[in-house]
Amino acid sequence: MNRFRFISVAKRSMSSLSGSSMPKTQKVILINDVGDYDVIQYENYAVPLINDNEILIKNKFAGVNFIEAYFRKGIYPAQLPYLLGREATGVVVAKGHGVSNFQVGDKVGYLSGATFAQYTKYPAVGKIVKLPSNASDEKLKLYTAGLLQGLTALTFIQDAYEVKKDDYILLYAAAGGVGLIMTQLLKRKGAHTIAVVSNEEKRKLVQEFGAEYVINSSDEDILGKVLQITNGRGVDSVFDSVGKDTFEISLEALKIKGTFVSFGNASGPIPPFPPTMLSPKNIKFVRPQLYGYITEPADWERYSKDLLDLLETGDLKILINKTYPLEAYKQAARDLESRKTTGKLVLEIPQ
After folding, report:
1. C-alpha span between 206 and 187 (Å, rounded)
2. How far apart are CA 168 and CA 286, in angstroms?
3. Structural domains of the chain ordered from first start
4. Closest Cα to residue 266, out of 183, 177, 340, 338?
5. Which residues contact 167 (CB under 8 A, 6 or more apart)?
6. How far apart are CA 264 and CA 201, in angstroms?
7. What residues does the Enoyl reductase (ER) domain cover (predicted)?
8. Extended beta strands in 136-201, E state
9. CB-based burial of residue 136 (10 Å sphere; 0-12 exposed, 13-18 middle, 19+ buried)?
10. Alpha carbon of 225 to those of 89, 119, 239: distances in Å?
């Protein structure tokens, strides 16, 4: 029997919860403006009130993701002040009168905004999963580190481009959080991964995680190496999280009828381009986001179950590079965006 219980989407009522004894304020990470690291603030903020069909989660760990930089820089719009964060694990500390599927004390993992905070309110049905009651803090940290990026990797190699055995796949930022997960999943599918990294230390790491070929972009020609590896044919698909700087290389690296999966802006957004650029090789171009693949309850249940099973059995390894206290998120952001890290960064939330 599976030890995880999966929750699907439903509508919320708007009635209020009475008698809550929760603190009135909490510590959070937010931005009040767009810009550089100086707009990141560690502040006191109101603990959210919950309604009849919501739960209040006291967060233990939250994952750090590159998407926070896109909101901070104004690449993605946000209503200010904006609480950062996209995923967390924690414990249910209060529930609305209409909630029957969670109890106070339940350990949960979930996807949501505003998770760089001591408390997050969440609908009792949503992108949330109940975790084993005996899960240790280290296990909660593992679930946190694997949740968003693991689901991203799983859905992208199935739905954005369905990877098949013996496909040649060009994967950028292969030593990052998504990259290391995707490298393992591609190997499980029997694909030939051509991993792009920025130094020799990262080369060794992605080889340990299953990459068949590795290109060091600091001193090797990406396109030349791809064509050499594929005997001039090109790759079946590119998974490009870099954006502007690698766009044209990725187009050239694809074979006829290849698929370009663009899912990041690490070097900046791809400039507008005419669709006719795709015509010479009949290239498919997709710009996916995770939530489009897990909107339906059945899809959420399938993918979240697959991910947690992989984590529980140890078939999917998650490299946690470093754990920072919540108040040190600014340094975590600097480290991530300067490409100093590998794997996943996690924030520990003060209790």
Report:
1. 12
2. 18
3. 5-148+297-348 (3.90.180.10), 166-287 (3.40.50.720)
4. 338
5. 189, 191, 192, 235, 236, 237
6. 23
7. 35-347
8. 168-171, 192-197
9. exposed
10. 41, 48, 16
What global pTM score does this model have? 0.85
Count Cβ atoms below 10 Å from residue 14 Cβ, excluding itself. 8
Contacts of 217 (CB under 8 A, 6+ apart): 196, 197, 198
Q: What is the DSSP letter of 160?
A: I
Q: Which two tokens stand for residue 103?
A: 């109890």
* Angstrom distance (rounded) from CA 256 to CA 311: 36
* Tokens of residue 62, six digits: 């939250």
Residues of the chain with pLDDT under 70: 1-21
| Rounded-to-integer distance, Cα 169 and Cα 192, Å | 6
H or E segment to which residue 262 belongs: strand 254-262
Name the phi and psi angles at 246, rounded to 5: -115, 0
Residue 65 has which token pair?
């993701």
The string of pLDDT tens digits covering residues 123-167 is 999 999 999 999 999 999 999 999 999 999 999 999 999 999 999
